[in-house]
């Protein structure tokens, strides 16, 4: 059964927690004891109805403050698919959490309160989803019950969003009018909106085609470990273990090891202690090469016929995640896959205004949650693909050398 990982984002009070609760409740993914606990907790509230947001608001501090403060993950499953919900908080200061949560999602649900239409947060979340290469966005127009289930209100919001999306790169956008509170169009079709001919949210999540999103053509395997037992039984054993990030590899294929550029052919592929002829994306394998070449952790094995970029000058979109600002000229460690190298920030061509998408030039420092284009110079050449072509080998992080803290997320470009 395949897995869909999606993120939910919206402003505070758009109904994110209620929507997730409704999805779990109506798809019968809640355990009986959880339900009982929620029913009890709800009774002490105003009207005694089951408060679905309680299901979702897992963190104690969240309940104390009444807002979501960190990324939370929830799992559920239907007969069609397994799901991981990444629940990102709505607050402006938590852009970095959304970047963290969304980086490996295939789909984003952008919640819009039908009464308010597209707001600042809609622009911000959509920009981040687009930057992170999320191909599928569901615009969930929620609280339709508060606008009399009006088709006009829904249509206007679709127009507003389409306009915004023209400045972004989101290939697939689906609009669904719903009421998370009442359950309209979440799992069950709404009777209150007969004018809506589309599918329900859950049905959309269950049926959307995602397999083609994984990059099938660019074989990339970052070496995690060189295995050389050098025991009496296995005197010559030498394998390179790692997880295939994208594409596939087969026995007999000519490969190149980066950054050294040395070449060989694959002589054997092991997975689960079996030899296989071919291995694919997301499989953990041990590759054996016909020639003895110098390979260590952090190297990237790629097909000789289809190599990534290799450069010491790297451009990227950056989300700055540290409370300490970034300034021009600062030095960090750049990590791509398993490879690490030192780098300095050579230039900040522009910062992105997250609401208007304008490029602001002449910037020399970046604050927490800022998004900007940066130019880095690295100590060692870095092997990478442009993020837009291959998320798996085009995403990177910046690490502060002294604290070892991740301070930035990068989408590498040409
Ligand atoms: N009328 C109506 N109210 C809704 C609907 N969905 C959510 N609400 C209400 O809106 C309020 C906010 O809902 P939440 O689910 O807590 O909002 P949220 O977006 O998760 O907020 P945070 O997680 O704190 O960022 C609650 O009072 C919900 O009952 C809806 O479809 N219709």
Automatic annotation (TrEMBL):
Which UniProt keywords are listed?
ATP-binding, GTP-binding, Nucleotide-binding, Nucleotidyltransferase, Transferase
Keyword Signal, does the record have it?
A: no
Kindly give the InterPro entries that the UniProt entry links to this protein: CysN_GTP-bd, CysN_II, CysN_NoDQ_III, G_TR_CS, GTP-eEF1A_C, P-loop_NTPase, Small_GTP-bd, SO4_adenylTrfase_lsu
Q: Which Pfam family, an example, fits this chain?
A: GTP-eEF1A_C
Q: Record keywords: Cell membrane included? A: no
In its UniProt entry, what is this protein called?
A: sulfate adenylyltransferase
What residues does the Tr-type G domain cover? Answer: 1-212
SUPFAM superfamilies from the UniProt entry: EF-Tu/eEF-1alpha/eIF2-gamma C-terminal domain, P-loop containing nucleoside triphosphate hydrolases, Translation proteins
Q: What is its EC number?
A: 2.7.7.4
């Amino acid at each position: 059964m395949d897995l869909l990982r999606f993120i939910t984002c919206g402003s505070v009070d758009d109904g994110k927690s209620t929507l997730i609760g409704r999805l779990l409740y109506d798809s019968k993914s809640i355990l009986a004891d959880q339900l009982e606990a929620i029913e009890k907790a709800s009774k002490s509230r105003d009207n005694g109805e089951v408060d679905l947001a309680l299901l979702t608001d897992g963190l104690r501090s969240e309940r104390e403050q009444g807002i979501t403060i960190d990324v939370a993950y929830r799992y559920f499953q239907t007969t069609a698919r397994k799901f991981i919900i990444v629940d990102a908080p709505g607050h402006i200061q938590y852009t970095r959490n959304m970047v963290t949560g969304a980086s490996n999602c295939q789909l984003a649900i952008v919640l819009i309160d039908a009464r308010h239409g597209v707001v600042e947060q809609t622009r911000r979340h959509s920009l981040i989803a687009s930057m992170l290469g999320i191909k599928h966005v569901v615009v969930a127009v929620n609280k339709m019950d508060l606008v009399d289930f009006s088709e006009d209100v829904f249509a206007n919001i679709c127009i507003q969003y389409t306009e915004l999306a023209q400045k972004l790169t989101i290939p697939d956008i689906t609009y669904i009018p719903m009421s998370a509170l009442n359950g309209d169009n979440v799992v069950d079709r709404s009777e209150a909106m007969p004018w809506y001919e589309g599918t329900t949210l859950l049905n959309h999540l269950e049926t959307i085609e995602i397999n083609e999103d994984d990059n099938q053509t660019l074989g990339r395997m970052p070496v995690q470990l060189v295995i050389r037992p050098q025991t009496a039984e296995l005197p010559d054993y030498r394998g390179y273990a790692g997880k295939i990030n994208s594409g596939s590899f087969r026995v007999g294929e000519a490969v190149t090891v980066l950054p050294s550029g040395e070449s060989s052919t694959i002589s054997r592929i092991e997975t689960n202690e079996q030899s296989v002829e071919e291995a694919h994306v997301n499989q953990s394998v041990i590759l054996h090469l016909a020639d003895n070449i110098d390979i260590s952790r952090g190297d990237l094995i790629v097909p000789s016929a289809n190599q990534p970029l290799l450069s010491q000058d790297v451009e990227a979109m950056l989300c700055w995640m540290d409370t300490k600002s970034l300034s021009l000229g600062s030095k960090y460690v750049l990590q791509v896959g398993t490879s690490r190298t030192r780098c300095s920030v050579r230039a900040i061509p522009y910062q992105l205004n997250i609401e208007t998408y304008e490029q602001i030039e002449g910037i020399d420092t970046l604050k927490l949650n800022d998004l900007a284009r940066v130019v880095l110079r690295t100590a060692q050449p870095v092997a990478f693909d442009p993020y837009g072509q291959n998320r798996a080998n085009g995403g990177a992080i910046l690490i502060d050398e002294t604290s070892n803290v991740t301070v930035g997320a990068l989408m590498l470009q040409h």
